Amino acid sequence: MSGGPLLLTGGSGILGTELRQLLPDLIAPPRAQMDITDSAAIEHALDRYHPGLLIHTAAFTDVAAAERERGACWRTNVVGTRNIARAAAARGVFLVHISTDYVFEGTRGMYREDDTPGPVRNFYALTKLVAEEVARAAGRSLVIRTSFRPRQWPYAVAFTDVYTSQDYVDIIAPEIALAVRHVSDIPYETLHIASERKSVFSLARRRSPEVEPRSKAEAPVALPDDISLDASRWESLKRRWQPGEGRG
Question: Where are the alpha helices (H) located in the chain, listed in sequence order?
Answer without folding.
Answer: 14-22, 39-49, 63-68, 70-74, 80-91, 123-136, 169-181, 200-207, 232-240
